[in-house]
Amino acid sequence: MVSRRKPLEPKSKRPEKVAPSKRTLGSHPAKGASRRAIEKRPPSSAIQQAARNLAHRTVLLDACNISHYNQRMPRFSVARLSKAITHFVEAGHAVHAVMPRFHLYTRQWNDPDRLNGLYRKNYIITTPCKEFPNPKSQVYDDRILMAIASKYNCAVVSNDMFRDMAHEHPQWSYVVHNLCLPFWWDSAENFHIPSNEILRH
Fold first, then answer.
1. Which parts of the chain sit beneath pLDDT 50?
2. Closest by alpha carbon to 74, among 28, 38, 36?
3. Region (Disordered): which ranges (predicted)?
4. Close Cβ partners of 197 (under 8 Å, ≥ 6 residues apart)
5. Is residue 180 part of a domain?
6. Is the bond into 133 cis (omega within 30 degrees of 0)?
7. Is residue 31 part of a domain?
């Protein structure tokens, strides 16, 4: 008699356990902060969900442009960035600040712990950048800012005129000329933008 063998059942694939990555923010790379420790999070899903749920237009902040206050180190104020974020949150907008990823582990910000807190709350989107051999050799935050704004019809808050960006793609030209808002700080460090209908869909 020929014995019949039971067909082998496929082994169940179990997801491997991956140890959570540790993010070292606010420390200099020379002191052991790993560039790979910075979590890369795709921004599109968060912005797309916000666009579905809110009647108001999603706002993208040019984080470095809004936060710059000094030519020396540190150059950027986390308090300014936080005030700008709060301004739009209280007005009912989904808001995301866009900056190059290496900004999370350099000494360019005056309050790294508070910056880390904004990042963990998903208010900050970090963009890819050429980090080797020089951490500041090339960044792509302006182009990614334009790409996200054109795809999801977001308002962009910046005093940068983005003239070079306007000539690269027709969709970016539309954002530059129709969806960009300037801002200013008064003597008491209060954040202001002009009243504008572009903040509404």
1. 8, 10-43, 51-52, 132-133, 135-137
2. 28
3. 1-45
4. none
5. yes
6. yes
7. no
